[in-house]
Design brief:
three-stranded parallel β-sheet; alpha/beta; Rossmann fold; 2 domains; globular
């Protein structure tokens, strides 16, 4: 099968730190190619993932611009989509068309690809987000029997509007590469717990800070703020009178609700991490925290933590109750006080149980199996629509 895999223009594949969507694309692309599929990757120029071809509208990721107001950023997604359309046309003209396009570009991906008409390849669009964010689009978009959706959890799809649910072929839980070897034993781990995510109000970073302070547990925050990868980048942007960063909502929230609780000792922000440093943080932290305030659709970072054998303490929202087995792989506290209490029980969780659950549920082969089933269903349904 020949697939055009569209990761969007925001971050390289694999990402250099933060980037759940891009990690999913990297994991799926690698496994599909291992199975003999041809995969051309639509991404940015700095991506390093091996593929059977690459198309990019931009040399580097545009993630920092994503935090800007909508009028300043919408053209980025459309410029990327135009490069995808041109790639589809080139392959068709050469007599080697794509069997399907798998796009991960929110809203713009399915909308632009649907406009190509019935002669274009069928499209599967993976939904990586809280569907309330673009509710009017999902409530009204009709893929015409050629563009369909894939969810990343059953709970995500269930919250979607009726028209979206009718065009969803199924939900495929996320997967991550599995580390080699056994997890680090409890006694060899650090005293710190970890938050590995974009730092913002929806992720509940402030809840993690207060709960850790109440429980007397050191906390490391690893992730970007308003598109800025670390303290140096944020300070430089804030010092520049021409930079719009000071007005970004995530930056304003960070300065008001997170920065006052940091002390470079028991609560530290270390910025985005990647590669061996990220792997080591995951493997040696006592737990990874997800005190989210939104219905998490997929939970890539949860899968990464459990694959490293690291317990998860998370709010019971969205898909997280389907990923965490309370008392076995972590805890699902209902409020901030319960979060602090759960942090005092981390020694009850065996890292080996976390790693075993991840191997069983979040292996790349499991996700690829799911997408191969959806690809077959996509081709079947689109052929029926074309024949009608």
């Amino acid at each position: 099968m020949k697939v055009l895999m569209d990761a969007g223009p925001w971050l390289p594949v694999p990402p250099l730190g933060y980037g759940g969507l891009e990690n999913v694309v990297a994991t799926l692309t690698t496994e599909l190619r291992r199975r003999g599929h041809t995969v051309v990757l639509a991404t940015v120029g700095e991506s390093t993932l091996p593929a059977d071809g690459r198309v990019a509208a931009f040399p580097t990721g545009r993630f920092a611009e994503l935090a800007a107001p909508y009028p300043q950023v919408t053209g980025v997604a459309h410029a990327h989509a135009q490069a995808v359309v041109a790639e589809i046309g080139r392959h068709a003209a050469a007599g080697a068309p794509f069997d399907l396009v798998h796009t991960h570009l929110e809203v713009v991906g399915p909308a632009v690809l649907a406009a190509l008409g019935p002669g274009a390849p069928p499209v599967l669009h993976t939904l990586h987000w809280d569907l309330r964010r673009n509710a009017e689009f999902y409530a009204s978009f009709d893929g015409g029997g050629r563009v369909f959706y894939a969810g990343v959890s059953d709970s995500q799809v269930a919250r979607g509007p009726e028209l979206l649910r009718r065009q969803t072929l199924g939900a495929v839980p996320l997967a991550v590469p599995l580390p080699e070897g056994p997890p680090v034993p409890r006694e060899e781990r650090s005293d710190s717990v970890l938050v590995l995510s974009r730092i913002c109000e929806l992720k509940g970073t402030d809840v993690a800070l207060r709960a850790c302070r109440a429980a007397g547990v050191p906390l490391v925050l690893a992730g970007p703020v308003g598109g800025q990868p670390d303290r140096a980048a944020l300070d430089a942007a804030l010092a520049d009178p021409a930079s719009p960063v000071a007005g970004y909502p995530d930056v304003r929230w960070f300065r008001e609700h997170v920065e006052p609780l940091l002390d470079d000792g028991s609560a530290r922000w270390i910025g985005s991490v990647s590669g061996a440093r990220k792997d080591d943080l995951l493997r040696r932290s006592r737990a990874v925290l997800f005190p989210i305030r939104w219905p998490e659709p997929g939970g890539t970072a949860v899968c990464e933590a459990l694959a490293a054998g690291t317990p998860v303490v998370a709010s019971p929202l969205g898909c997280l109750p389907s990923l965490v087995d309370p008392g076995v792989t972590g805890f699902l506290p209902e409020d901030e006080a319960a979060f602090a209490a759960a942090l005092r029980r981390l020694d009850e969780i065996d890292p080996a149980d976390c790693a075993a659950a991840a191997r069983r549920r979040f292996a790349p082969a499991v996700m690829a199996d799911g997408y191969e089933r959806l690809y077959a269903e996509l081709l079947h349904r689109s052929s029926l629509a074309q024949a009608a």
